[in-house]
Structures are given as C-alpha cells and as structure tokens.
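quick one, 479 residues, struct below
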Amino acid sequence: MDVTATTAAPLDTAADTVALGVFDGKRIPHDLDGGPLQALLDAGEARTAFKHLALTHAGGKRWILVGLGKREEFTPERARIAAAVVHGRAREAGASVLCWELPHKLGDAEVEAFVSGTLLAARRIDRYKRAPEEERPGLTALIASDHADRSGAVARAVVVAQAQNRARDLQDRAPNDLTPTALGARAKELEALGVTVEVEGRAKIQARRMGAFAAVFAGSAEEPALITMRYDGPDAHGPVLGLVGKGVTHDTGGYALKPKGSIAGMKFDMSGAAAVVEAVAAIAELRLPVRVVAVVGATDNKIDAASVTPGDVVRAASGLTIEVNNPDAEGRLVLADCLWHAQQLGAERIVDLATLTGGAITALGTVHCALWANDEAWAHALADASAASGELLWRMPLHPDYASQVDGTYADLDNSPGGGKAQPVLAAEFLHRFAGDEVPWAHIDLTAANDLGKPYAKKGGAGWGVRLLVELARAHDAR
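---
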C-alpha cells in the first residue's frame, strides 16, 4: 500500500473514500456545501460513540464517519482501533484510495497510530491459501491529510507498521517452513540495511560451550541458529542496547510432551525472536542514532533418542550447571546462554522477549505483558516505551525469597522449581542468574503474542514488541 502525507484538503486528493473522526460535543470541521456530513450526525445516523461507523456519499466521494469518543480519553491506541474499523468498512465498500482527514492538533504519536492501525488491519493471513476466484480488492493507497506537514510521522509509522507486519508473517509461518535456518536467513537480509549479521549452527554453538541452549536442540534434526545482529547508527551514542529473543520455532515440550490442545499453537514460541529481528530492521531503516547488539537463539524442541531427559544436568556458557527437571521449560535454557552471550558482546542495557510461561497468560491475559527488571531506571525506560508504543507492560517482582527457590539440589540451578507455583516469577529469577546485576536487564514474558482479538490484530501473530523496542531505541540515546 502506498502511504503519503498531504496538506491538501481531502476533496483535492485522488481518494475515492474519505475517513473523518468525530469527537463528543464537536461539529464536523470543513463540511461540504449544504452540510451533508453534519446532517448525518444531527440525524443520529453518524454518532460520536467510539468506533461507531456511518457511510454516505457527497462531493463525488464516499465518506466514512467514525466516532472517536471523548477528546480527553483519546489515545494512540484508540486511533489505531478507529483506523482499523474504518479500514474494514472501507474494504467492504470497495474503496481503493482512502484519505484520513486527521483531527486537528494531534500529536505525532496519534498521527502515527492512524497510519499504523490502517496498515496493520490491511494485513492478510494468506501465505498458504489458494487465491479465491473472486476477491474484493483492498486499498492500494492511504493519504493522511492535515493542515500541518505530517510527512515525518507518517514515514515513521510506515516503517514500524511494516516491521510489525513482517514479524506477524514470521509468526504465522508453519514450523516446517520457518525453521531456525529460515529465521537466520531472514536475519541475514538485514545486511542490506547496514546491519552486521552472523548466523552460527550446531557445531559453533557447542564450541561456545552453550550447554543450556544445546540441551534444547539435542533431539532435533533441524540445524539450530545462534543469530547475532549488530547495528551502529549514524552519530550513535549512549550505552549499547542489547535485545535478546527466544526463537523456539516449535515446542513439543520434549519428554514433557504438551497436551494435544496446546501443541498446535507452539509455532508461536518464536514470537520474541520475530519481534527482535524486525525491530532491528526498523531501527536500521529509521537510522536511529543508537548502538544495538541483538541475539536470537533459534531451535525447535523435538524428541528423539538424543533428547535431554528429565533429571539431566547441563552446563551453561556462564559456567552455571542446571538440572533440567522439565524439558518443556526450554525457553529459559535458550535464553540463559543468549543473555550471557549478549553481555560478552558488549551489551550495556538488555531486554529479552520470550513466550516463556503459560502462568503469565493466566495472570494477565493478553492485555499486558509481564515485566521483570533488576534496575529501576531501566524499568522506567521500559515503562516510558510502553506508554509511547501502546504495548502495555505490568511490573512483576524479583525478590530473594523467589530467587532462592531456583537453586538446584544436584546442580547450581533447577530449570523448573516451585511445584507449579509462581512459575513466571521463578522463570524470571532463573534468567536473572544469567543476566546478573551489573548490567541493567529486563525480561518480558510475551502474553500478547497472538490472537489479540483487536480490530488490527484479531487472529494470528500480533508482532507484539516491535513498536515497544523501536520506542525504546528512539529514547535510548538520551539515557
């Protein structure tokens, strides 16, 4: 979809359809001769209630009026939702070129949200589907109209929304298609953006003595991938930002085999990796003045005679030994070596993203993702990025009484202690042992990876984390 910004009035654009948002207590700005749009509002066919839609024709164009609710309650997230519901109505009506007449005096964040909501809603899950014989065409172009020049905000929104959609595409690929090798190949494509990328396989991972990571791919016929990406932006300054993503392309649970009701969805266990790869792509495309080192551990978790057995003891690259009492708690094994590796590569601030525990979803659903941090300033930086991106975080505890529970009986650590209690917290405490306290670190348990039910991300991968990480990088040079 071609996306542009203009200071021209919607009637003067090439759009066949114009979208107009209306706040409570406000009249239609810039109505046409005879006031047909205000008349629609006065008659009650159009309303200011949030997401309410009305359609009419006037001035040679199709008009879609959408309620935006109270101005004081309007947020970028509401802009994304409003844009998504308008996109759906425009597509039903056969629109080809949509122009948003942006509400007056919006901040850049709201402008970006109108654009991203449209682009996110326009994405289709159709990689493996046969094209229908008759399909209603979608939008070919989006125009953002405002009195002020909004080209910068619109351009940023396009970059980030496209990155988020690419992350969703990665998430939705079948596990026999998106293998660790394929994920590494996608990362290598970032070299065209000036990112330095290295992909290492089984032999090199083992040579690095990453015994925790290696325990997960021991039973797999697929080649694992340790993916390292480096980006040094123009005039980069500030601490090196470390991004770490869990890339388990399918998780059977190993010898702790998952039940049939949940195993099919385990292709989404690489969602953290998808967010990290595509966030790095967006950061590079935006040429942000930051230094980034990103690490993704990619493998599947399959079963054969070589698979790790409950009770096995493995040694991580840091030297710590781990009792693998639950082969289905494999993500923390992958991340243990990846977190250590990121620090060895010079990361000075680290955040990891992983679909780590079902307990976090039980606690928070898909509204918030769970956050743990060992540093207050870094936690505040993540909170600011969350507020700016609309990807919500909820702070969870790190505490010595939890930390002592991950101590092993036969090794330094137990990968699945607690007897089912406080599993998300104990998983974070396990990772904390590898992150340490010298480097500010945060762990995000991705509860909102897929099937959000939102107008712009109803089914399939959500690409959650791309916006958050880009906002973190945008602010990072100032910290």
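The radius of gyration is 24 Å.
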